[in-house]
Amino acid sequence: MAEEFESTPGRLDAVVAHRLSLTRADAQRAIAGGRVRVDGDLRPKSHRLAGGERVSVDLAGMGELPPEGPPVEVRYRDPSLLVVSKPAGMPTHPTAGRLTGTLVNRLMGMGVPLSPAGGPLRPGIVHRLDAGTSGLMIVASTDAAHQALSAVLRRHAVDRRYLALVRGAVAHERFAVDAPLGRVGSRIRVRAVTGKQAETLFEVRDRFDRATLLEAAPRTGRTHQIRVHLSAVGHPVLGDRTYGGGGDDAKRLGLTRPFLHSWRLAFDHPITGERIEIEDPLPPDLSLALRRVGGEG
C-alpha cells in the first residue's frame, strides 16, 4: 500500500489527502504515525510543499479492508461500472480509523471489481452520499471508467435528483439556491466570501399541512449541499438534526435520519456513450414517513 509521487504546492496533509483520496484527518494520522516522508525526511502536517518534492506514503499496517455482507441492491451493472442503492446509515467508504461497515466493504463482499484508482480506502468510489442519505450511487469497476466518470462529474454532466421532505410550506413551486459553502468546525455553512460556489435547483413535488416534498437537483457536489441550502432558506430537511430538521415534527413521522433520498440518476455512459437513466424507489422508512405526513390532515 506504499505510494510515491511528485508533490504539488500546498500543505503536506492537504496534498497527501488529495493525491491519495484520503480525508484530511486520515492524512494527518499517517503523517503523525511516521508514514509520510518528503524527500526522505519526516515533516509535520503543516509543512509547506513548494511542488516537485518526492513524497512517499506507506499505508501498510493501517489495515486491510475486510469484505462484508449482506449485499446491496444493484440497479445497473456492466463491465465498466455499476449503479447501486446505498442504504441509509452506511458511510460510503472506510477511513484509517474505521475500516468496516461501509458501502465499499459490502461491495467487496459481493466480489464486485472496484477500480484501485480511487485510492486504498476508496476503491471504485467517484462520488459520495452522506451516511444518512440513501439511494443511487455510481461505482467504477475499472480505472478507465473511474477516470472518465470523474471527468463527467467535474463537468456536472450527471443529472442527479433527490427527494427531500422539508419543514414548512415552501413559497415557490420552483426556486434555486446559489450560496457558497465552507466548513466551520464539523459543519458546513453558507460562507459568502470564503466558501466554494454551490447551486441547487428545487421543485415542489407535493404539499402537506406542515411539510413540503421537494425534488432537489444539485448543480455542484459540495459536502452536505442540499441539507445546508435548505436549512439556509428556512426549510430544513425533516429528520436532519445537524441542520435544524429534528424536533417533534420529525419524531411524529418516525424519522431517525434526514428524509433525503437519491432517487434518480441520468448520464451518458463514459465508455459506450449509451444514455443511462435509473430510478430508485423510496426505502420503507421514508415511505412510511410520507404516508404519516399525508395522514396528519
* Protein structure class: alpha+beta
Number of structural domains: 3
At the fold tier of CATH, the topology name of the largest domain is: Pseudouridine synthase
CATH level-4 homologous superfamily of the largest domain? Pseudouridine synthase
Strand percentage: 25-35%
Mean pLDDT: 93
- The Rg value, from CA coordinates, equals 20 Å
Low-pLDDT windows of residues: none
Distance between the termini: 58 Å
Helical content (DSSP H or I, runs of 4+): 10-25%
Question: What profile does the largest beta sheet have?
Answer: 9 strands, mixed
SS field, number of helical segments: 7
Query: In sequence order, what are the helices and strands, one letter per element?
Result: EEHHEEEEEEHEHEEEEEEHHEEH
CATH architecture classification name of the largest domain: 2-Layer Sandwich
- The count of β-strands is 17
Shape: globular
Q: What's the CATH C level of the largest domain? A: Alpha Beta
Question: Which keywords apply here?
Answer:
297 residues; Pseudouridine synthase; 3 domains; 17 strands; Structural Genomics Hypothetical 15.5 Kd Protein In mrcA-pckA Intergenic Region, Chain A; alpha+beta; 7 helices; four-stranded antiparallel sheet; nine-stranded mixed sheet
